[in-house]
Amino acid sequence: MPRSQRSFKIRAALRGSLFRNAMRCVEMLAKRNPDRYPYCDRDTRKLKIMDITRFGRYETVTDGVGLIYSFANVGIIIGTRGVVLIDTSSATFSKQIWLTLRAQTSLPIEHIIFTHGHIDHVTGVQRFLDDAAEHGFPRPTIWGHEKMLARFDRYERMPGWITEVNRRQFGSNNVGKSIPASYVRPDYVFSDSIVIDFEGEPVELYHADAETDDAAWVWLPQRGVAYVGDLLLNSLPNTGNPNKVQRNTLGWAMALEAIAAKQPQHLMGGHFQPIAGDQCQEVLIETARALRYLHDAVVDRLNAGRWPEQILSEKLQLPEDLRSKPYLREVYGCCEFVVRDVLRQYAGWWTGHPAELFPLSRAEMGAEMVGLVGADRLRERIRELMTQQQCATALPLAVMLTDSPEVTAADRDLLATVLEKLSDSERSFIARNLFAQEAAAAKRSQSG
Ligand SMILES: [Zn+2]
User: How far is the CA of 369 from the centre of ligand 1 (A)?
Assistant: First the structure.
């Protein structure tokens, strides 16, 4: 074994064990205090969408194809003369991944494929470009969908907004630190599909307008392997993310159906453990069916003349047989968010509620309500509702109270308590974090 490869292996092993120990500590903390850790399942108290104790570990999926676990995972195809990487994870984790990769192989990285432009998949790329420069290898060729270019332009235009949205969604102030000022663009882009020749083996890339408009899934026809990026997530797909740009619920279902039509024997992706055998078809088909069910339910109702607010008030859920599937739990996305994604896609922003066309400001609403019933009666009613566990009903009243001129520090505390209770009862960690962030803001304004 060449010296450089041996030293890579030793460093990777050291880093790997240190990193895994650190991650075990994080998981223990997460079990104790699930609210602070987004990937903890509220029912089982386990980290479910991804298992962070695996980060930095290489797993062979089939001969010559593997995956390094991280946030996000990195897919690897090892040939006889070079390597293909699928995604690069984020800048935070790229060194760990690079060490694990170099413990596996010393071959040059020939191609890097981006499955989409989300920061957890692309911002680790520099580490692998540096690797080529350090070894005197040719620079890897980067491939991605053509819409990544506009996405990166937007990211570079809006770093402040992206930082804030992710801070709220993930409930962490650290997210902003991993948002770069600029992005490495693909060298080659494609529109519908493209085939990369890797040592005589076709590596097929297909476009999916789904979670993002720039998504690509990778198909290795000779091996029956599909790398699906974030098209599967071990949760009901997160279309309708509250403050992200439009996603495509129907496009997502169609992409999963297109992958299923290839009859893959192995599925790999950014945030789940590889799936093999018959389970591949089940997960693809049933996830597509869930998305189509919610999409079609909304479309049928719009066609029948129902307005978005009426559709939202129905609180649409998946049919019972889909609701019980472990890979469709509302851990990340949730049904109501998916419904909103479809509504926003087809029906614009107005829900049909007349008071929401030119809505009163929060201060006007608060002043009017308190003027009408009195602040004390409002406080009494909020407490009553909370005793009856009706926090969702208490919330708008508590908001109006704190937006009124008669607000006291105790009212803000009351609002924070309502929000914390709602956060506790949510299954989708995005909703949970958004409520928790608002609770913290209510407390902050109280102390300010
Ligand atoms: Zn991702």
Answer: 43
